[in-house]
Amino acid sequence: MALDKNQIAKRIAQEVQNGYYVNLGIGIPTLVANFVRSDISVEFQSENGVLGMGPFPFEGEEDADVINAGKQTITTLPGASFFDSAFSFGMIRAQKVDLTILGAMEVAENGDIANWKIPGKMVKGMGGAMDLVASAENIIVAMMHVNKAGESKILKRCTLPLTGVGCVKKVVTELAVLEITPKGFKLLERAPGVSVDDIIKATEADLIIEGEVLEMAI
Asked: How far apart are CA 91 and CA 62, in angstroms?
């Protein structure tokens, strides 16, 4: 059974540790705040100038003035702060963020990421992704394993314009958890009901498989 977007976010939330400052990119990453354990303290940052984001608001409780970088309404936790983009990117470029979680169109086995442009299609620009991938020490990508045509997005080399080079540490998809090692993608976990063969068939890059691959605990 392939995971849905909420389940991908729930698995990534297991990577968040107590005391972390975490940047959540647009798309699936924004869902991670809904699943972080209640017994740890985490500060979620959005590059439009918010520190201390909480889960998404319930319907009817939205405040249109409180949004994330993707223009979605959010909640804030006690002690949250608001500031301008210059201050926000100062935090990012000074490497004050412990973990960055981004979406992607493609990831390569050497850690390259492409997440901002498909040639021939209208795009709004790279946004803060370039700064995030250049500054972060720990980057986890939340993405779908294949595109709408069924083609792999886990590649030997990216085909789309790059956002960053050799920066991704781990990828979580609807099928698997992959770690990027000096030798390429290592298969760490598989989605419940998904076989190793299913993942191999959906992956253009070669996979390193050592011993039994356990199912994700979600």
From this structure: 27
- What is the C-alpha separation between 69 and 128, in angstroms, rounded? 9
CA dist., res. 39 & res. 95, Å (int): 25
From 43, 47, 109, 174, active-site residue: 47
pLDDT in tens, 7-59: 999 999 999 999 999 999 888 999 999 999 999 999 999 989 999 999 899 99
Contacts with 195 (C-beta within 8 Å, 6 or more apart), sequence order? none
- Catalytic residue check, 47: yes
> CA 193, 195, 201, 203 torsion: positive or negative?
positive
Question: 5 exposed, middle or buried (CB, 10 Å; 0-12, 13-18, 19+)?
Answer: middle
